Amino acid sequence: MIIWNTLITHYVWLAAWLGSCLLVGVACWGKLGEYDSYDAPPWPNPELAIFLSVCTGLAVHILALIVLALLGMLHPVSIVATFMALSVASLVYLYHDPVGWNQFVKPFRMGRFEWLKVLPVLLVILPWILRPLGPPYGMDALTYHLPYAQFYLDQGGLAVNENLRFPLHTHNVNLLYSVALLRPGTQLAQALHASMGFLALLGIYGIARHWYGWLAAILAVSGMLLLQEFKNSFSYAFADNGVLLYATAAFLAMALWTESRQQRLLWFCALFAGTAMGSKYFGALFTIPLGLTLLWFSRDFKLLFRFAAVTAVFGLFWYLRSWWISGNPVHPFAGDIFGHYLWNASELAGNLNELSSWGVDKT
Q1: What percent of the chain has pLDDT over 70?
Q2: Most-buried pick from 83, 110, 269, 342 (CB within 10 A)?
Q3: Contact at 8 Å (CB) between 256 and 55?
Q4: How far apart are alpha carbons 246 and 69 in whole angstroms?
Q5: pLDDT digits (tens, 9 = 90+) for 233-248
Q6: What is the pLDDT of residue 193?
Q7: Phi and psi dihedrals of 128, rounded to 5?
Q8: Is residue 289 reached through a cis peptide bond, with omega within 30 degrees of 0 on the bond before it?
Q9: Contact 178, 74 (CB under 8 A)
Q10: pTM above threshold 0.90
Protein backbone atom coordinates (compact mmCIF):
# COMPACT_ATOMS: atom_id res chain seq x y z
CA MET A 1 0.00 0.00 0.00
CA ILE A 2 2.86 2.40 0.83
CA ILE A 3 4.45 2.00 -2.58
CA TRP A 4 1.14 2.72 -4.32
CA ASN A 5 0.61 5.85 -2.21
CA THR A 6 4.14 6.95 -3.10
CA LEU A 7 3.52 6.15 -6.74
CA ILE A 8 0.29 8.13 -6.90
CA THR A 9 1.63 11.11 -4.94
CA HIS A 10 4.81 11.55 -6.98
CA TYR A 11 3.18 11.02 -10.34
CA VAL A 12 0.34 13.41 -9.52
CA TRP A 13 2.93 16.10 -8.77
CA LEU A 14 4.89 15.20 -11.90
CA ALA A 15 1.74 15.23 -14.07
CA ALA A 16 0.81 18.67 -12.72
CA TRP A 17 4.31 19.95 -13.45
CA LEU A 18 4.43 18.56 -16.99
CA GLY A 19 0.85 19.75 -17.55
CA SER A 20 2.02 23.25 -16.72
CA CYS A 21 4.90 22.80 -19.17
CA LEU A 22 2.43 21.68 -21.85
CA LEU A 23 0.27 24.75 -21.31
CA VAL A 24 3.23 27.13 -21.42
CA GLY A 25 4.61 25.37 -24.49
CA VAL A 26 1.34 25.59 -26.43
CA ALA A 27 1.15 29.32 -25.65
CA CYS A 28 4.74 29.85 -26.81
CA TRP A 29 4.14 28.04 -30.10
CA GLY A 30 0.95 30.02 -30.60
CA LYS A 31 2.66 33.33 -29.87
CA LEU A 32 5.56 32.69 -32.23
CA GLY A 33 3.07 31.49 -34.83
CA GLU A 34 1.81 35.08 -35.05
CA TYR A 35 5.05 35.96 -36.85
CA ASP A 36 4.98 32.97 -39.18
CA SER A 37 3.50 33.01 -42.66
CA TYR A 38 2.01 29.51 -42.27
CA ASP A 39 -1.38 28.87 -40.67
CA ALA A 40 -1.03 25.09 -40.57
CA PRO A 41 -0.02 23.39 -37.30
CA PRO A 42 3.75 22.85 -37.09
CA TRP A 43 3.28 19.23 -35.98
CA PRO A 44 1.73 16.44 -38.09
CA ASN A 45 0.38 14.21 -35.30
CA PRO A 46 -0.63 14.34 -31.61
CA GLU A 47 2.56 12.69 -30.37
CA LEU A 48 4.75 15.43 -31.81
CA ALA A 49 2.32 18.12 -30.66
CA ILE A 50 2.64 16.93 -27.05
CA PHE A 51 6.36 16.27 -27.32
CA LEU A 52 7.37 19.65 -28.75
CA SER A 53 5.00 21.59 -26.50
CA VAL A 54 6.18 19.95 -23.26
CA CYS A 55 9.83 20.34 -24.29
CA THR A 56 9.21 24.04 -24.89
CA GLY A 57 7.46 24.58 -21.57
CA LEU A 58 10.14 22.70 -19.65
CA ALA A 59 12.83 24.83 -21.34
CA VAL A 60 10.94 27.98 -20.28
CA HIS A 61 10.84 26.64 -16.72
CA ILE A 62 14.61 26.12 -16.85
CA LEU A 63 15.11 29.71 -17.98
CA ALA A 64 12.85 30.92 -15.18
CA LEU A 65 14.85 28.90 -12.64
CA ILE A 66 18.11 30.40 -13.90
CA VAL A 67 16.69 33.90 -13.41
CA LEU A 68 15.45 33.05 -9.91
CA ALA A 69 18.82 31.53 -9.02
CA LEU A 70 20.68 34.61 -10.27
CA LEU A 71 18.42 36.82 -8.17
CA GLY A 72 18.94 34.69 -5.07
CA MET A 73 15.25 33.76 -5.07
CA LEU A 74 15.47 30.00 -5.55
CA HIS A 75 13.03 29.32 -2.72
CA PRO A 76 9.88 27.16 -2.64
CA VAL A 77 7.42 30.06 -2.61
CA SER A 78 9.08 31.95 -5.45
CA ILE A 79 9.49 28.80 -7.55
CA VAL A 80 5.85 27.76 -7.20
CA ALA A 81 4.65 31.34 -7.71
CA THR A 82 6.73 31.71 -10.88
CA PHE A 83 5.48 28.45 -12.37
CA MET A 84 1.89 29.35 -11.52
CA ALA A 85 2.33 32.82 -13.04
CA LEU A 86 3.64 31.27 -16.26
CA SER A 87 0.64 28.91 -16.39
CA VAL A 88 -1.88 31.68 -15.71
CA ALA A 89 -0.27 33.96 -18.30
CA SER A 90 -0.43 31.12 -20.83
CA LEU A 91 -4.10 30.47 -20.05
CA VAL A 92 -4.95 34.15 -20.43
CA TYR A 93 -3.10 34.37 -23.73
CA LEU A 94 -4.77 31.24 -25.16
CA TYR A 95 -8.16 32.46 -23.99
CA HIS A 96 -7.80 35.78 -25.81
CA ASP A 97 -6.03 34.29 -28.83
CA PRO A 98 -7.07 30.63 -29.22
CA VAL A 99 -5.26 30.08 -32.53
CA GLY A 100 -2.33 28.37 -30.78
CA TRP A 101 -4.65 26.05 -28.87
CA ASN A 102 -6.66 25.26 -32.00
CA GLN A 103 -3.46 24.33 -33.82
CA PHE A 104 -2.41 22.15 -30.92
CA VAL A 105 -5.65 20.14 -30.80
CA LYS A 106 -6.10 19.87 -34.57
CA PRO A 107 -3.93 16.71 -34.93
CA PHE A 108 -6.01 15.05 -32.19
CA ARG A 109 -9.11 15.01 -34.42
CA MET A 110 -8.55 11.54 -35.75
CA GLY A 111 -10.36 8.25 -36.15
CA ARG A 112 -11.96 6.67 -33.10
CA PHE A 113 -9.54 3.75 -32.97
CA GLU A 114 -6.41 5.59 -34.07
CA TRP A 115 -5.09 5.86 -30.50
CA LEU A 116 -5.13 2.07 -30.15
CA LYS A 117 -2.00 2.02 -32.30
CA VAL A 118 -0.07 3.56 -29.39
CA LEU A 119 -1.37 0.95 -26.93
CA PRO A 120 1.43 -1.63 -27.47
CA VAL A 121 4.07 0.97 -26.58
CA LEU A 122 2.15 2.07 -23.50
CA LEU A 123 1.82 -1.53 -22.32
CA VAL A 124 5.57 -2.04 -22.69
CA ILE A 125 6.45 1.18 -20.84
CA LEU A 126 3.83 0.91 -18.07
CA PRO A 127 5.79 -1.48 -15.80
CA TRP A 128 8.71 0.97 -15.81
CA ILE A 129 6.86 3.60 -13.82
CA LEU A 130 7.98 1.80 -10.65
CA ARG A 131 11.68 2.12 -11.48
CA PRO A 132 12.16 5.73 -10.29
CA LEU A 133 10.59 5.00 -6.90
CA GLY A 134 13.60 3.18 -5.50
CA PRO A 135 16.35 4.67 -3.32
CA PRO A 136 18.92 7.09 -4.82
CA TYR A 137 21.12 5.20 -7.25
CA GLY A 138 24.15 5.90 -9.41
CA MET A 139 27.48 7.53 -8.60
CA ASP A 140 26.81 10.75 -10.52
CA ALA A 141 23.42 11.18 -8.88
CA LEU A 142 24.81 10.65 -5.38
CA THR A 143 28.03 12.65 -5.71
CA TYR A 144 26.99 15.43 -8.03
CA HIS A 145 23.51 15.97 -9.47
CA LEU A 146 21.31 15.58 -6.39
CA PRO A 147 23.77 17.20 -3.94
CA TYR A 148 24.10 20.24 -6.20
CA ALA A 149 20.34 20.48 -6.62
CA GLN A 150 19.95 20.50 -2.84
CA PHE A 151 22.89 22.90 -2.44
CA TYR A 152 21.29 25.46 -4.74
CA LEU A 153 18.07 25.19 -2.75
CA ASP A 154 19.92 25.63 0.53
CA GLN A 155 21.77 28.67 -0.82
CA GLY A 156 18.68 30.12 -2.47
CA GLY A 157 20.60 30.61 -5.70
CA LEU A 158 23.79 29.85 -7.59
CA ALA A 159 26.95 29.25 -5.60
CA VAL A 160 30.14 27.23 -5.88
CA ASN A 161 30.60 24.18 -3.68
CA GLU A 162 34.29 23.27 -3.76
CA ASN A 163 33.61 19.89 -2.16
CA LEU A 164 31.42 18.53 -4.98
CA ARG A 165 32.44 17.21 -8.37
CA PHE A 166 32.27 19.66 -11.26
CA PRO A 167 31.49 22.82 -9.28
CA LEU A 168 31.26 24.74 -12.54
CA HIS A 169 29.35 22.86 -15.19
CA THR A 170 26.12 22.88 -17.20
CA HIS A 171 23.44 22.65 -14.51
CA ASN A 172 20.11 22.96 -16.35
CA VAL A 173 18.94 19.54 -15.21
CA ASN A 174 20.25 20.09 -11.68
CA LEU A 175 18.01 23.15 -11.37
CA LEU A 176 15.05 21.00 -12.36
CA TYR A 177 16.05 18.56 -9.63
CA SER A 178 16.06 21.48 -7.19
CA VAL A 179 12.34 21.81 -7.90
CA ALA A 180 11.83 18.07 -7.54
CA LEU A 181 13.60 18.09 -4.18
CA LEU A 182 10.95 20.41 -2.80
CA ARG A 183 9.14 17.12 -2.24
CA PRO A 184 10.59 14.79 0.41
CA GLY A 185 12.98 12.16 -0.93
CA THR A 186 14.64 11.80 -4.31
CA GLN A 187 11.90 9.84 -6.08
CA LEU A 188 10.37 12.85 -7.83
CA ALA A 189 13.78 13.81 -9.24
CA GLN A 190 14.26 10.26 -10.49
CA ALA A 191 10.73 10.24 -11.92
CA LEU A 192 11.51 13.50 -13.73
CA HIS A 193 14.62 11.96 -15.28
CA ALA A 194 12.55 8.94 -16.32
CA SER A 195 9.82 11.19 -17.76
CA MET A 196 12.41 12.92 -19.97
CA GLY A 197 13.26 9.49 -21.34
CA PHE A 198 9.56 8.73 -21.90
CA LEU A 199 9.13 12.06 -23.70
CA ALA A 200 12.08 11.29 -25.97
CA LEU A 201 10.40 7.98 -26.83
CA LEU A 202 7.19 9.87 -27.60
CA GLY A 203 9.06 12.14 -30.00
CA ILE A 204 10.75 9.20 -31.71
CA TYR A 205 7.39 7.45 -31.99
CA GLY A 206 5.79 10.58 -33.46
CA ILE A 207 8.38 11.24 -36.15
CA ALA A 208 8.60 7.55 -37.12
CA ARG A 209 4.79 7.36 -37.42
CA HIS A 210 4.80 10.55 -39.48
CA TRP A 211 7.37 9.20 -41.94
CA TYR A 212 6.81 5.45 -42.02
CA GLY A 213 3.57 4.57 -40.21
CA TRP A 214 2.62 3.29 -36.79
CA LEU A 215 4.26 -0.15 -37.15
CA ALA A 216 7.63 1.43 -37.87
CA ALA A 217 7.06 3.76 -34.92
CA ILE A 218 6.52 0.81 -32.57
CA LEU A 219 9.67 -0.85 -33.90
CA ALA A 220 11.67 2.36 -33.39
CA VAL A 221 10.57 2.66 -29.77
CA SER A 222 11.17 -1.03 -29.19
CA GLY A 223 14.69 -0.62 -30.52
CA MET A 224 15.35 2.14 -28.00
CA LEU A 225 14.00 -0.02 -25.20
CA LEU A 226 16.53 -2.73 -26.05
CA LEU A 227 19.39 -0.40 -25.02
CA GLN A 228 20.37 -1.49 -21.52
CA GLU A 229 21.89 1.86 -20.54
CA PHE A 230 18.72 3.65 -21.64
CA LYS A 231 16.59 1.28 -19.55
CA ASN A 232 18.86 1.83 -16.55
CA SER A 233 18.36 5.59 -16.85
CA PHE A 234 14.81 5.22 -15.57
CA SER A 235 16.14 4.39 -12.10
CA TYR A 236 18.39 7.36 -11.32
CA ALA A 237 18.67 11.13 -11.55
CA PHE A 238 21.43 11.93 -14.05
CA ALA A 239 21.54 14.60 -16.76
CA ASP A 240 21.67 12.11 -19.64
CA ASN A 241 17.96 11.93 -20.40
CA GLY A 242 17.83 15.73 -20.35
CA VAL A 243 20.44 15.87 -23.11
CA LEU A 244 18.68 13.05 -24.96
CA LEU A 245 15.35 14.86 -24.72
CA TYR A 246 16.56 18.19 -26.04
CA ALA A 247 18.88 16.77 -28.69
CA THR A 248 15.93 14.70 -29.96
CA ALA A 249 13.66 17.75 -29.87
CA ALA A 250 16.20 19.87 -31.76
CA PHE A 251 16.71 17.31 -34.52
CA LEU A 252 12.99 16.61 -34.90
CA ALA A 253 12.19 20.34 -35.07
CA MET A 254 14.89 20.76 -37.71
CA ALA A 255 13.54 17.78 -39.66
CA LEU A 256 10.02 19.22 -39.61
CA TRP A 257 11.41 22.60 -40.69
CA THR A 258 12.99 21.02 -43.76
CA GLU A 259 9.51 19.79 -44.72
CA SER A 260 7.33 22.81 -44.03
CA ARG A 261 9.80 25.73 -43.67
CA GLN A 262 7.77 27.18 -40.82
CA GLN A 263 10.15 29.65 -39.20
CA ARG A 264 8.99 28.94 -35.64
CA LEU A 265 10.22 25.36 -36.01
CA LEU A 266 13.69 26.76 -36.64
CA TRP A 267 13.65 29.08 -33.63
CA PHE A 268 12.33 26.43 -31.29
CA CYS A 269 15.01 24.12 -32.67
CA ALA A 270 17.53 26.75 -31.54
CA LEU A 271 15.88 26.84 -28.09
CA PHE A 272 16.14 23.06 -27.81
CA ALA A 273 19.75 23.03 -29.01
CA GLY A 274 20.67 25.70 -26.49
CA THR A 275 18.93 23.80 -23.70
CA ALA A 276 20.88 20.66 -24.64
CA MET A 277 24.09 22.73 -24.47
CA GLY A 278 23.15 23.87 -20.99
CA SER A 279 22.39 20.33 -19.82
CA LYS A 280 25.77 18.76 -20.54
CA TYR A 281 28.94 19.80 -22.36
CA PHE A 282 28.37 16.96 -24.80
CA GLY A 283 25.13 18.63 -25.86
CA ALA A 284 27.08 21.44 -27.52
CA LEU A 285 28.33 19.01 -30.18
CA PHE A 286 24.82 18.62 -31.58
CA THR A 287 24.82 22.24 -32.74
CA ILE A 288 27.30 21.33 -35.50
CA PRO A 289 25.11 18.89 -37.50
CA LEU A 290 22.09 21.12 -36.86
CA GLY A 291 23.89 24.12 -38.32
CA LEU A 292 25.15 22.13 -41.30
CA THR A 293 21.62 20.83 -41.96
CA LEU A 294 20.24 24.35 -41.87
CA LEU A 295 22.91 25.61 -44.25
CA TRP A 296 22.42 22.68 -46.64
CA PHE A 297 18.68 23.25 -46.99
CA SER A 298 18.65 27.04 -46.88
CA ARG A 299 21.96 28.07 -48.50
CA ASP A 300 21.55 31.17 -46.34
CA PHE A 301 24.49 32.21 -44.15
CA LYS A 302 22.49 35.05 -42.59
CA LEU A 303 19.85 32.57 -41.44
CA LEU A 304 22.59 30.32 -40.09
CA PHE A 305 24.04 33.25 -38.14
CA ARG A 306 20.64 34.10 -36.63
CA PHE A 307 20.09 30.47 -35.71
CA ALA A 308 23.52 30.32 -34.04
CA ALA A 309 22.82 33.57 -32.18
CA VAL A 310 19.50 32.30 -30.77
CA THR A 311 21.14 28.98 -29.79
CA ALA A 312 23.91 30.88 -28.02
CA VAL A 313 21.43 33.04 -26.11
CA PHE A 314 19.77 29.95 -24.65
CA GLY A 315 22.87 27.77 -24.36
CA LEU A 316 25.90 29.79 -23.27
CA PHE A 317 24.89 30.87 -19.77
CA TRP A 318 26.71 28.12 -17.87
CA TYR A 319 29.80 28.45 -20.08
CA LEU A 320 29.95 32.20 -19.46
CA ARG A 321 29.46 31.69 -15.72
CA SER A 322 32.28 29.16 -15.66
CA TRP A 323 34.54 31.50 -17.63
CA TRP A 324 33.69 34.44 -15.35
CA ILE A 325 34.52 32.50 -12.17
CA SER A 326 37.42 30.31 -13.29
CA GLY A 327 38.64 31.70 -16.60
CA ASN A 328 37.71 28.37 -18.20
CA PRO A 329 34.36 28.09 -20.04
CA VAL A 330 34.43 24.28 -19.90
CA HIS A 331 35.83 23.76 -16.40
CA PRO A 332 37.36 21.43 -15.33
CA PHE A 333 38.39 20.35 -18.82
CA ALA A 334 40.91 22.10 -21.09
CA GLY A 335 42.85 23.28 -18.06
CA ASP A 336 46.09 23.22 -20.04
CA ILE A 337 44.60 25.90 -22.29
CA PHE A 338 42.55 28.05 -19.92
CA GLY A 339 44.32 27.34 -16.65
CA HIS A 340 43.26 25.28 -13.65
CA TYR A 341 40.75 26.25 -10.97
CA LEU A 342 40.29 24.21 -7.78
CA TRP A 343 41.65 21.12 -9.51
CA ASN A 344 45.19 20.89 -10.85
CA ALA A 345 46.19 18.66 -13.76
CA SER A 346 46.99 15.60 -11.65
CA GLU A 347 43.75 15.86 -9.66
CA LEU A 348 41.72 16.12 -12.85
CA ALA A 349 43.53 13.10 -14.32
CA GLY A 350 42.84 11.11 -11.17
CA ASN A 351 39.18 12.06 -11.25
CA LEU A 352 38.81 11.04 -14.89
CA ASN A 353 40.55 7.73 -14.20
CA GLU A 354 38.10 7.09 -11.38
CA LEU A 355 35.12 7.97 -13.57
CA SER A 356 36.35 5.61 -16.29
CA SER A 357 36.06 2.71 -13.84
CA TRP A 358 32.28 3.20 -13.65
CA GLY A 359 29.61 2.40 -16.19
CA VAL A 360 29.49 -0.27 -18.89
CA ASP A 361 32.58 -2.21 -19.92
CA LYS A 362 34.46 -0.94 -22.95
CA THR A 363 35.31 -3.46 -25.62
Answers
A1: 87
A2: 269
A3: no
A4: 22
A5: 888 899 999 999 999 9
A6: 94
A7: -80, -10
A8: no
A9: yes
A10: yes
